[in-house]
Design a protein that fits this description.
The protein has two domains: 3-159, no CATH class; 162-262, Receptor-associated Protein (Up-down Bundle). It is flat and about 90 Å long. Helices cover 85% and strands 0% of the residues. The chain is mainly alpha-helical. The chain has helices at 3-27, 31-40, 50-56, 59-78, 81-93, 102-127, 130-179, 184-194, 198-211, 216-227, 230-245, 249-307.
Length: 308
């Protein structure tokens, strides 16, 4: 078993190297990503060049950019196209946490797999059996490889919950603005100007794409598909249908907002009805045995003492 410490050292060293490479890959962002983020937040004018955006980045990031791009290309070879597109869509939806892109997320998965695999291997060495070493190594690698994906899925679910919470109020703002005489684009600009949150970032990006010449229908449909929220998707489809048929868009938005509030109230009532069933299991499994032990414990002790 003399090779085991050497193997642990090699795996740990590989994990440290992959961790450093993953941090560099996650911190560095290219000029197009920086331009897209700034356009979404309306911080720059449309005439600013990519060279100026590149010079705004820190010197260390610009120095390490060629190595980062090479590392990203190597990881993209290991990432299927569909999976990379899915990761890109999810990361873009949650706001690129930690500056990650699909290659950076893949680097994080490999790093976590190496690190947790080394921990599992060390735990198996402490136990001292070959079976424990194999199980610890495999379990650590599997958990580390899929843990970043679960973390990203959790971020996506949280962002969708936030969107569903703020969407009715945002629709009221748009409907009131349109009833006051503004068009759809100007009403959406009022929403971006007076509210903050994940929804306003998505709307701001769609408005910028429309100003750059993209058709409004394409920009709104992509924005709705990126969220994955069914109510938002049906809202965009309703707006586009109302625009084609001549139905007042403000009335459509107001009706959809009222419908979303009704669905929210029904969801709250459903969750309240399920609360009693969720409380039943800990009550029966934890509270009742304790009560029976307290009530019948002294009598049981007396009965056992009398029997002896």
């Amino acid at each position: 078993m003399t090779f085991v410490p050497i193997l642990v050292g090699v795996v740990a060293a590989a994990g440290v190297w992959l961790l450093a490479a993953g941090i560099v890959a996650s911190r560095a962002g290219d000029a197009t990503m920086l331009a897209r983020q700034r356009l979404a937040r309306q911080d720059i004018g449309l005439g600013q060049s990519a060279v100026a955006l590149e010079l705004e980045r820190p010197f260390l990031e610009r120095l390490l950019a060629p190595a980062r791009r090479w590392f990203g290309r190597q990881l993209n070879r290991l990432t299927p196209a569909a999976q990379a597109a899915n990761f890109h869509r999810q990361l873009d939806f949650v706001g690129d946490p930690l500056g990650l892109d699909p290659a950076g997320l893949q680097a994080l998965r490999i790093t976590a797999a190496a690190g947790l695999g080394a921990l599992g291997l060390a735990f198996g060495v402490l136990i001292g059996t070959a079976f424990a070493i194999g199980v610890g190594l495999l379990a650590g690698v599997a958990i580390g490889f899929y843990l970043p994906v679960l973390w990203l899925d959790q971020l996506v679910r949280q962002r969708r919950v936030e969107l569903e919470a703020v969407l009715p109020n945002a629709l009221d703002v748009v409907a009131i603005s349109m009833e006051a005489g503004l068009g759809l684009d100007r009403a959406l600009e009022q929403l971006v100007r007076h509210q903050e949150g994940p929804l306003t970032l998505l709307v701001a990006r769609a408005l910028r794409e429309i100003e750059l010449g993209r058709p409004r229908a394409d920009a709104l449909e992509e924005m709705a598909e990126a969220t994955g929220v069914e109510d938002f998707t049906s809202l965009v489809k309703g707006i586009l249908h109302a625009e084609r048929t001549g139905v007042p868009i403000a009335r459509t938005i107001a009706a959809h907002s009222a419908q979303m509030r009704v669905k929210r109230r029904l969801k709250i009532r459903t969750e309240a009805a399920r609360a009693s069933l969720k409380i039943l299991l800990p009550t029966v499994g934890c509270v009742f045995p304790t009560l029976w032990l307290i009530l019948l414990g002294p009598a049981l002790i007396v009965a056992l003492s009398l029997g002896h």
